[in-house]
């Protein structure tokens, strides 16, 4: 029987732009009368932006929610200009810039729309969630931005296509509610924020909310003899490290593969994890690792945890995130295979980056 999920990974063993090409193919496959609902944090791919406009022009119902001022504040400006132009999407584009909260000097405590959600009605209804942002261009004029946020068209990344009707309906609804009304600081108190979507074998949560953090709550219930594997692009907050170290104190075996950038996973975090007996290594193939997943094995039970979330204070408390917890064996096996590739990077056969080139500013 065909799985209700399809898992796609970007990386050095895939052609450059593999995941953005997947989205391009999905856009092109939606006919007049169909729908595309899109939520993204970084969106800089001009070809994809124009493809969305072409889809609307042929009669597809398109909505796009996009972070107006991400961490690299001007990263999305060119796509926003194209989509908001008279010949663009018009009011079908909503840029979301959320109000910050009082913060100490030199710190910006501003929530971000950090979700990655791409829903398509045809050729078969599907909702993609994961870690991938379409944040590059075939001919790149802003090499400074690519260096800062990482080349997500060539680095380690993922999209999980959900075909479970129970999940698709609610994910599309979520995307359209974001489009209809930008969330405010009180969004975490709303029914939408505190409602989990339950599929056949997968539950999806949204942040921020008033419920306990689903990843922390889940891991805090894991005990002795469990095996936990964590792929993480960002680990910075003490709370996250406490949770991970707590697993080892309860007798679990914990392994971590982290992004190589010291800003995203700090040396102090690395040292504390190593001191706790955790098997820690950094991805070292000189490509960004934007993957965010956890594999949990306890007895004969296996779970996958994945989505847009990071192990950071903004992600835990402020950002709008999507988190999935699944007992689906197809998802687990796909992530486990990917873990093996990350853990033994010499087995990767690099693909020559022929599709993208950087144009000096």
From TrEMBL:
Native species: Nitrosomonas communis
SUPFAM superfamilies: Phospholipase D/nuclease
Domain Phospholipase D-like as annotated: residue spans: 32-151, 224-335
GO biological process, one term: lipid catabolic process
Record-listed E.C. numbers: 3.1.4.4
Catalytic activity: a 1,2-diacyl-sn-glycero-3-phosphocholine + H2O = a 1,2-diacyl-sn-glycero-3-phosphate + choline + H(+)
Hydrolase among keywords: yes
GO MF terms, alphabetically ordered: phospholipase D activity; RNA endonuclease activity producing 5'-phosphomonoesters, hydrolytic mechanism
Name of this protein: phospholipase D
């Amino acid at each position: 029987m065909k799985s209700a999920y399809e898992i796609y990974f970007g990386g050095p063993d895939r052609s450059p732009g593999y995941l953005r090409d997947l989205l391009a193919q999905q856009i092109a496959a939606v006919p007049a009368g169909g729908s595309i609902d899109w939520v993204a944090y970084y969106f800089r791919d001009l070809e994809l932006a124009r493809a969305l406009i072409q889809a609307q022009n042929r009669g597809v119902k398109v909505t796009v929610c996009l972070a107006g001022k991400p961490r690299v504040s001007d990263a999305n400006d060119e796509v926003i200009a194209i989509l908001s132009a008279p010949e663009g999407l018009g009011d079908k584009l909503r840029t979301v810039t959320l109000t910050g909260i009082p913060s100490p000097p030199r710190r910006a405590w501003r929530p971000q729309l950090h979700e990655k959600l791409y829903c398509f009605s045809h050729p078969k209804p599907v909702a993609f969630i994961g870690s991938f942002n379409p944040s590059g261009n075939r001919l790149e004029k802003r090499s400074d931005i690519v260096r800062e946020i990482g080349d997500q068209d060539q680095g380690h990344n993922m999209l999980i296509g959900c075909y479970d009707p129970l999940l698709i309906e609610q994910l599309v609804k979520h995307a359209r509610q974001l489009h209809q009304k930008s969330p405010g600081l009180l969004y975490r108190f709303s029914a939408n924020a505190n409602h989990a979507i339950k599929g056949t074998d997968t539950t999806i949560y949204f942040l921020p909310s008033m419920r306990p953090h689903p990843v922390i709550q889940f891991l805090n219930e894991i005990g002795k003899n469990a095996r936990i594997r964590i792929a993480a692009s960002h680990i910075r907050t003490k709370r996250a490290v406490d949770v991970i170290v707590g697993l080892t104190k309860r007798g679990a075996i914990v392994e971590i593969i982290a992004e190589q950038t010291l800003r995203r996973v700090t040396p102090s975090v690395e040292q504390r994890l190593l001191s706790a007996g955790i098997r820690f290594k950094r991805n070292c193939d000189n490509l960004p690792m934007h993957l965010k997943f956890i594999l949990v094995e306890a007895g004969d039970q296996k779970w996958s945890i994945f989505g847009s979330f990071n192990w950071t204070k903004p992600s835990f408390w402020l950002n709008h995130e999507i988190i999935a917890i699944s007992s689906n064996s197809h998802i687990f096996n796909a992530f486990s295979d990917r873990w093996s590739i990350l853990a033994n990077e010499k087995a990767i056969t690099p693909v020559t980056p022929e599709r993208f080139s950087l144009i000096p500013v």
